[in-house]
């Protein structure tokens, strides 16, 4: 990498074909560049070629963090919970989403509400723990001169990638990433989960009230059903929640932004479905 410097080696140029170095071992270049005509003040020592081994080491650690975070996120919690409690493959049941919401719906349809809440709790807490663990791994591997801010962004991004695109399912199926994002928020700043969660729930219930007309607060099952089914409120809430987080703690913004973008990408199939249904409704009304 060429780096401009104001002061370089003070010794005089003697041999144009030599390979001089500074006392700290930095190469000044293979040969001195020739002066450009019309630029008599050109100094070949104004540029040096630096090769910092620490940069290579840091990049290696970032790759390691990315790999570990992806593996952490790739644990298919919902798959094992539904296999254990129902003997079914969640990928081919309900919405096909390998996440806590589909787990709750499947168990609730065949077993008691308590069993459904139990399955939901195990799945959500484990998936939430994946986000927490990925952030702590990034901090645990911190080294002198280590870019921790970049590592946190990479850890958050890749744990969501692992959760959404499971390698054990050939990267085709997975969850939507909301539970691991909650874990990321808790690990970075526990208070932030209240701000993020409050904004998200407010958006969901406002959208439900405006689009459907009722929220259905008579039972936990009904409330959770609204949270899972109100896609427009959920998508808008995920985007809106970034704003208060930015003003609350700017250090949270970029790790959460990267994770949120991946979550929204995972919702594209639902968005396309809603668009098709809307077009069909308009066609029928005409």
> Based on DSSP secondary structure assignment, what is the total number of beta strands?
2
The helix tally amounts to 12
How much helicity do the residues have?
Answer: 55-70%
Low-confidence stretches: 1-19, 30-53
In one word, what is the shape? globular
Cα Rg: 27 Å
Q: End-to-end distance, in Å?
A: 64 Å
Number of domain modules: 2
Give the helices and strands, then pairings:
Layout: E1 2-4, E2 47-49, H1 53-73, H2 77-86, H3 100-110, H4 113-140, H5 148-164, H6 178-188, H7 192-211, H8 220-229, H9 231-240, H10 242-248, H11 250-266, H12 268-285
Antiparallel strand pairs: 1-2
Helix pairs in contact: 1-4, 1-5, 2-3, 2-4, 3-4, 4-5, 4-6, 5-6, 5-11, 6-7, 6-11, 7-9, 7-10, 10-11
How would you describe this protein?
There is one protein chain. The chain has 286 residues and is mainly α. It folds into two domains: 1-51, no CATH class; 53-277, no CATH class. Helices cover 63% and strands 2% of the residues. It has helices at residues 53-73, 77-86, 100-110, 113-140, 148-164, 178-188, 192-211, 220-229, 231-240, 242-248, 250-266, 268-285; strands at residues 2-4, 47-49. The protein has a two-stranded antiparallel ribbon with strand order 1-2. Helix 2 (77-86) runs parallel beside helix 3, helix 4 (113-140) crosses helix 6 (178-188) and helix 6 runs antiparallel to helix 7. It starts with a strand and ends with a helix.
Keywords:
mainly alpha, two-stranded antiparallel sheet, disordered N terminus
């Amino acid at each position: 990498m060429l780096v401009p410097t104001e002061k370089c080696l003070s010794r005089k140029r003697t041999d144009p074909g030599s390979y001089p170095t500074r006392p700290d071992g930095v190469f000044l270049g293979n040969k001195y560049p020739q002066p450009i005509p019309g630029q008599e003040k050109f100094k070949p020592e104004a540029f040096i070629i630096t090769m910092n081994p620490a940069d290579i080491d840091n990049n290696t650690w970032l790759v390691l963090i990315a790999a570990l975070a992806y593996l952490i996120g790739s644990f298919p919690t919902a798959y094992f919970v539904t296999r254990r409690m129902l003997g079914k493959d969640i990928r081919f049941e309900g919405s096909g989403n390998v996440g806590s919401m589909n787990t709750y719906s499947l168990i609730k349809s065949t077993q008691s509400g308590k069993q459904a809440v139990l399955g939901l709790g195990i799945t959500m807490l484990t998936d939430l723990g994946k986000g927490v663990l990925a952030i702590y791994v990034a901090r645990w591997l911190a080294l002198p001169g280590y870019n921790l801010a970049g590592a946190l962004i990479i850890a958050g991004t890749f744990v969501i990638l692992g959760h959404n695109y499971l390698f054990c399912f050939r990267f085709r199926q997975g969850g939507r990433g909301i539970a691991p994002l909650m874990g990321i928020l808790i690990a970075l700043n526990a208070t932030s989960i209240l701000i993020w969660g409050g904004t998200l729930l407010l958006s969901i219930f406002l959208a439900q009230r405006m689009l459907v007309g009722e929220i259905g607060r008579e039972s936990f099952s009904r409330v959770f059903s609204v949270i899972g089914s109100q896609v427009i409120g959920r998508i808008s809430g995920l985007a809106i929640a970034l704003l208060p987080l930015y003003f609350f703690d700017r250090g949270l913004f970029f790790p959460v932004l990267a994770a949120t973008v991946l979550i929204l990408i995972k919702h594209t199939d639902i968005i396309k479905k809603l668009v098709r249904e809307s077009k069909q409704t308009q066609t029928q009304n005409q």
